């Protein structure tokens, strides 16, 4: 059990260069399987899932050079043998996005039935199966494996998703590049990391229309070019460091080259009386002495933070705003419209002395502003929840312990080093 000890109570101050978004890095790595041309990726974070993909590429026969200190990854898949076999890593959900490239390259891929990820509730793979079948693949069970096979290049397809799934959208786009003719997806996910994957694919030679919208068209591509690509900053991490400033009464600036993605995020900070400024490639939050939930003009309506697929507030950011709700004086309703298991951890907040009420699996009310105390809490395997607990602990005088805090490392290899530079005293016990 990994424990994180947090000795809080300081107003955090400083500047941070955030890492790249793992939700952009992983699909891009998977999409590189489409190409035999050399690929250079920069600002690659040293996280667990990247390590797993790196190891898998090596098992396939790819030539991969990873400079962890320089954060670069040089990839050449031309060395993969056509007779290579591919059983995908079980421990990460991103495995399923390697299937289009493997089908195009090897004609077969195997996936163990239980694919793991954050414990956010049921995540079916049926939408992915429908994508692969639409492009001519067969999908079947063989023992504990799900086996995907494709004998030849399929034709373009049109699909209307039941919900705007990020990974299903990404799998459709990657699959469409391996097909003949045009393909179109309706109700596509349009998160910044989906857009970033499309930008990378365009640099490889893909023709994609509509990225960042709910309707995306893709032309099949016969050949991909070499590309040198640098990942942009993770908007999740930018928002998280700004929230750390808010929750501790501090003053933090974070490098941010895409402030256009932050209009709604900024407005959500304003709901707690915290203001974000963007200037010269940086975003800054200089916190007020006391966070206060702002009253609606319609005064009998409780202030709400609703999380849903982009362009709503992302569900992955909801925990950090719940941390603000715990600290801010007043009541806030948080509504997770994506995951049915995304709020069950709220009981741990009571150990800090927080007052919360779970209305149903999707809605939580915080009654904030109470005096909080140090505590020992246990995080579920949800990255941003572990960080939300760290945020609250950072705002409290004394030492708190977060058990099972390892998910933080899964997405943010430098996160603890960064918060230490801001003034939080933290240490790991593995």
TrEMBL record:
<keyword id="KW-0573">Peptidoglycan synthesis</keyword>
<dbReference type="InterPro" id="IPR036968">
    <property type="entry name" value="Enolpyruvate_Tfrase_sf"/>
</dbReference>
<protein>
    <recommendedName>
        <fullName>UDP-N-acetylglucosamine 1-carboxyvinyltransferase</fullName>
        <ecNumber>2.5.1.7</ecNumber>
    </recommendedName>
</protein>
<keyword id="KW-0961">Cell wall biogenesis/degradation</keyword>
<dbReference type="GO" id="GO:0009252">
    <property type="term" value="P:peptidoglycan biosynthetic process"/>
</dbReference>
<dbReference type="Pfam" id="PF00275">
    <property type="entry name" value="EPSP_synthase"/>
</dbReference>
<keyword id="KW-0131">Cell cycle</keyword>
<keyword id="KW-0133">Cell shape</keyword>
<dbReference type="GO" id="GO:0071555">
    <property type="term" value="P:cell wall organization"/>
</dbReference>
<keyword id="KW-0963">Cytoplasm</keyword>
<dbReference type="GO" id="GO:0008760">
    <property type="term" value="F:UDP-N-acetylglucosamine 1-carboxyvinyltransferase activity"/>
</dbReference>
<comment type="similarity">
    <text>Belongs to the EPSP synthase family. MurA subfamily.</text>
</comment>
<keyword id="KW-0132">Cell division</keyword>
<comment type="pathway">
    <text>Cell wall biogenesis; peptidoglycan biosynthesis.</text>
</comment>
<dbReference type="GO" id="GO:0008360">
    <property type="term" value="P:regulation of cell shape"/>
</dbReference>
<dbReference type="InterPro" id="IPR050068">
    <property type="entry name" value="MurA_subfamily"/>
</dbReference>
<dbReference type="GO" id="GO:0051301">
    <property type="term" value="P:cell division"/>
</dbReference>
<keyword id="KW-0808">Transferase</keyword>
<dbReference type="InterPro" id="IPR001986">
    <property type="entry name" value="Enolpyruvate_Tfrase_dom"/>
</dbReference>
<dbReference type="GO" id="GO:0005737">
    <property type="term" value="C:cytoplasm"/>
</dbReference>
<dbReference type="InterPro" id="IPR013792">
    <property type="entry name" value="RNA3'P_cycl/enolpyr_Trfase_a/b"/>
</dbReference>
